[in-house]
Here is the input.
Amino acid sequence: MDSFILFAVILCWLSLALGLASLYQYSKQKQYLKAHLQEIAVTSSVLVAGKKGRLEKIIQFLARYADDFSTLGERINFYSESEEIDKLLKRSGNPYELSVKRFQGFKIVFILLGLLLGFFMVIMGFPLANIAFVTLPILGFFIPIIWVRSLGKKRQDLLRKDLPDFLDTVSISLQAGSNLDSAIKEVIKYFDGPIREEFAQFLQEIDLGVPREKAYAGLLDRNENEDFQSLIKSLIQATRLGVPMASTFKAQAEDIRKISLEQVKEKAAKASPKVTLITSFIIAPLIMLLIIGLVILNMIYGENSIMNIFS
Here is the structure.
């Protein structure tokens, strides 16, 4: 009987020790999970938009009707195939959270708005109203396509503009001993625009368990800028071969600056003939006409004018 009681006491103490150890492990895992979720939340907050502007409210209002016409818009895919629109939306940063189907519906909505505006102009008797009644719906069809293309081009230009400074800053952080993800996470706080959005989404995918090469492939798929693609391909190669990341970022920044300098020189060289052309065919003839006009006025109304001679 005594041995049974001793065994029960030992078992109780063992159970208590195991319970305390499990509680300690639980608290440690909870703290780690809280810190991990906080890092993800900080990274994700970069992708959250601010206050809604007037244009966003208008788009959200029209989106109710665009969803209804999405099927018809996918059938009328002149210069707007769904695969091409998907690439354009990715490269423009998915403005206003537009999906491919909703974008296709917007084309039909703008066609109807063009018809209504043209019909109103015909009723009110505006000049060239009949031409506007035909051209406005066609223009309405192409407005969303032109808009998303211009947004994509502008976004890619901004991405390239901020890239050298971003690379230099990340390179300094890497040389100071930070790892790549920590360096990028710290540096993007001081940048705005597409470069911040792209690397914030990249870090979010990494935190959620997406393989690194797949996250790099997402960056390549969402952006067509040659310098940015060259950077991502270099990072993929450096990851596979074990090349130091700091030297990769520094070399890429120097290459981009050299290319930018060459492009500026090329634009300046192309601008010189244009300036000469404008000077020769516009400014010089105007100056000559001004001088001739002053001479003629002096001959007519001056002290030694022709009128005084014959008077």
